[in-house]
Specification:
11 helices, binds zinc ion, 18% strand, two-stranded antiparallel sheet, 10-stranded mixed sheet, alpha/beta, 38% helix, binds ligand PBG, TIM Barrel
């Protein structure tokens, strides 16, 4: 059938029908909110390249998490900013590290909030790399032990889901083994499986003070030119025991989200990263785009690409809008 018998506009005229025929929907339960916790800070301080986002001190954290929960967001992922950094990133796996303290506080106050632990070293190392370094090389296998220790310490602190973001080879198997051995075989892993070496992480690195002190992350994070390689990365992580696989960033990599969703029958997460947030906020602040509609359209596009879960700095606001 073709025009004039077939008229696609017939289904677009009535608002109720448009709504009924929506193929994809965003839900509050899709959203994960990333939060920065800073050791030694009292109250909060704004992150200049992410207007509307803050670093939180332990004293201010419970109120903010409660507010996020009241917005309808059920999950947070916690990033730590330690007072002391060293070569081995020891605060990443310290029993009383800033993230471990934050988790204990949240768990005690709000046991129903799902706590996700980002496992990496870059926020904790003096050189800012995600692994141990020797000269200018980022060492793989020696790093696995440290990541495993970080994962177990977060599990002990109350993490409900472990999310390794380092991109070392073999880390999922190592962390899975370490968690199992420590009595946490029930804790799932959400792996940053296809994480690209992206310029969109700029504002995050300012927020967390985690920019590499020398070189860049291209020897461990993926080349933006590659798509098949993402499927190989995901396959490895699934075979090593990942329960949820993540693609990161989201917007510039929606084709990867779709390929991963189609190929693997796995829950897929996508991370709308700091630079994606900053772009929307900057354009909106200038009055160049409709802020709310752009945020919701962007989140919906990530869902449509195949993501089950979306990590987004817009989570609390989006959750409120979804309720309206
Ligand atoms: C650290 C990490 C990064 C992000 C999440 N975990 C940055 C990086 O790889 O430098 C980026 C998140 C964002 O940009 O919002 N491994
Ligand atoms: Zn890192």
């Amino acid at each position: 059938m073709t025009f004039p018998q077939m008229r696609p506009r017939r289904l677009r005229e009535n608002a109720v029908l448009r709504d009924m025929l929506s193929e994809n929907r965003l839900a509050k339960s899709d959203l994960i909110y990333p939060m920065f916790v800073k050791e030694g800070l009292s109250g909060s301080e704004p992150i200049s390249s992410m207007p509307g986002q803050f670093r939180w001190g332990l004293d201010a954290l419970p109120d903010r998490v409660a507010e996020v929960s009241r917005c309808g967001v059920q999950a947070v992922i916690i990033f730590g900013i330690p007072q002391h950094k060293d070569e081995e990133g020891s605060q990443a796996y310290a029993e009383d590290g800033i993230v471990q303290q934050a988790m204990r506080i949240i768990k005690k106050d709000m046991p129903e909030m799902l706590i996700i632990g980002d496992v990496c070293l870059c926020e904790y190392t003096s050189h800012g790399h995600c692994g141990m370094v020797s000269g200018r090389r980022i060492l793989n296998d020696p790093t696995l032990e440290l990541l495993s220790a970080a994962a177990v310490s977060q599990a002990r602190a109350g993490a409900d889901l472990i999310a390794p973001s380092d991109m070392m080879d073999g880390r999922i198997a190592a962390i899975r083994h370490a968690l199992d051995s420590a009595g946490f075989d029930h804790l799932p892993i959400m792996s940053y499986a296809a994480k690209y070496a992206s310029s969109y992480y700029g504002p995050f690195r300012e927020a967390a003070g985690s920019a590499p002190g020398f070189g860049d992350r291209r020897s461990y994070q993926m080349n933006p030119a590659n798509s098949d390689e993402a499927l190989r990365e995901v396959r490895l992580d699934v075979e090593e025991g990942a329960d949820i696989v993540m693609v990161k960033p989201a917007l510039a990599y929606l084709d990867i989200v779709r390929r991963v969703k189609d190929r693997f029958t796995m829950p897929v997460a996508a991370y709308a990263v700091s630079g994606e947030y900053a772009m929307i906020e900057a354009a909106a602040a200038n009055g160049w785009i409709d802020r709310r509609r752009t945020i919701m359209e962007t989140l919906l596009s990530i869902r449509r690409a195949g993501a089950d879960l979306i990590l987004t700095y817009h989570a609390p606001e989006a959750a409120v809008w979804l309720d309206e």
